[in-house]
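[job 0417] fold request received: Ig-like domain-containing protein
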Amino acid sequence: AVFGLKGVRIWNPEAIRAGELLRLSCDYDLEGVPLYSIKWYFGDQEFYRFVPKESPPTRVFPLSGTTSVDISESDDHSVTLTNLPRDMSGHYKCEVSTDAPLFHTQIKESYITIIEEPQTQPLMFAGKLKYIKDEPVKINCTSYSAFPATNLTWFINDKKVTNSTKYAKTTAWVTNEDDGLQTSRSRLELSTHGEYFPGGRMTVRCESNQFMLYKKYSVIELMDDSPRLAQMISPTSVLRS
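[job 0417] inference complete; emitting structure tokens
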């Protein structure tokens, strides 16, 4: 039978907030062959090494900025990083090597995003709050200063706006700021229609989110100001005895 290194796999979060801990795990099956080393890389830069034959078995290599390895929370399968800024977003790699006689090596990598949340909820602006039937409506929503840019989603009367939403069109764009943060903007355009004004009111919500870590929203309420037909009152018959 042929034995050797199999099943190398990285376990990690898809994203974390800047400043939080990042714990990376690397699973592998040596199939009875001795381990030579575990090495972790950010991009091509090695930052942690575990070699069982050495004393001590762990070695740490400096990373830029405030990020450091917590050795007390790192071993032959896992490594923990602290104080990660957003520029530590990127590819993290685990390299597993077996000892003699096979000297097998496998590398697996995973992309992790370090987010910076917006400091405020999204801001909405509508030119006016009262509309008549079929009058065009334009509403802008802005989510300032985040990394990466937040996703903006529209809801009309609690129903998500999609490409198939009648009378509705959305346009989204992102602008880069000088400090590396990004601002998301989106515009909702629609022809107002009676079905959007149950009870004469329409609620519009703009939701801003980043991965599963951040979600905030703003809401405005628009009113149907269409002319009303005068109510016709039928004459009442008066019965005389």
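[job 0417] notes: The domain at 123-224 is CATH 2.60.40.10 (Immunoglobulin-like). Residues 25 and 178 are 35 Å apart (CA to CA).
[job 0417] exit 0
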